[in-house]
């Protein structure tokens, strides 16, 4: 759930923030190459350090120690994020069970309103149309349906 940028530059700030300055003198963690080589041990140590506090608490600590960080959110957390909502990152399209959020276009054009083209198709909604375009006749399509090959 944590993202660090410029790992060697920010490693000392992170070590101080989590109160594990001994990592700075640990040869296994001396630089990004060594931390990668010893990543299993490093992750175990970091997991132990992080276990005692919530994300919110760590966020406040990291901010105080100038640690560049960001949470890595689940898809649902991203869709529900107030900043993503305010930025217009998502649009809704109609679905069979209600609106479905989709990623909005990253570019905004003044004279072209942003709107999804239409609803998500149901499973098999266009199967017959596609098969007809591919040259299948109705007898073949019926046979495919009866065999369970298509819905």
Could you characterize what this model shows?
This protein is mostly helical and 151 residues long. The chain folds into three domains: 7-64, no CATH class; 74-120, no CATH class; 121-151, no CATH class. 44% of the residues lie in helices and 5% in strands. It has a two-stranded antiparallel ribbon with strand order 1-2. 6% of the residues are buried. Pfam families: CoA_transf_3. One of its GO terms (molecular function) is CoA-transferase activity. It comes from marine sediment metagenome. Keywords: Transferase.
Profile the largest sheet.
2 strands, antiparallel
What number of structural domains do the residues give? 3
Shape: elongated
Tell me, rounded to a whole number, the average pLDDT.
89
Identify low-pLDDT runs: none
Query: Structural class, from helix and strand content?
Result: mainly alpha
Instruction: Note the run of SSEs as H and E.
Output: HHHHHHEEHH
Tally of strands: 2
Strand order of the largest sheet: 1-2
User: How many distinct helices?
Assistant: 8
β-strand percent reads 5-15%
InterPro entries: CoA-transferase_III_domain, CoA-Trfase_fam_III, CoA-Trfase_III_dom_1_sf
Keywords: Transferase
Pfam family, one: CoA_transf_3
Protein name: CoA transferase
For the structure shown, list the relevant keywords.
single chain; 151 residues; mainly alpha; 3 domains; two-stranded antiparallel ribbon; 44% helix; elongated
């Amino acid at each position: 759930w944590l993202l660090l940028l410029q790992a060697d530059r920010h490693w000392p700030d992170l070590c101080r923030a989590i109160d594990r300055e001994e990592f700075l003198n640990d040869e296994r963690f001396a630089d990004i190459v060594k931390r990668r080589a010893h990543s299993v041990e490093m992750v175990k140590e970091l997991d132990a350090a992080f276990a005692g506090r919530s994300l919110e608490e760590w966020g406040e600590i990291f901010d105080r120690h100038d640690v560049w960080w960001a949470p890595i959110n689940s898809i649902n957390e991203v869709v529900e994020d107030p900043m993503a909502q305010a930025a217009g990152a998502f649009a809704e399209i109609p679905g069979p069970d209600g609106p479905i959020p989709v990623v909005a276009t990253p570019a905004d054009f003044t004279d072209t309103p942003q709107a999804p083209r239409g609803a998500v198709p149901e499973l098999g909604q266009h199967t017959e149309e596609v098969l007809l375009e591919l040259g299948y006749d109705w007898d073949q399509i019926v046979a495919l349906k009866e065999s369970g090959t298509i819905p």
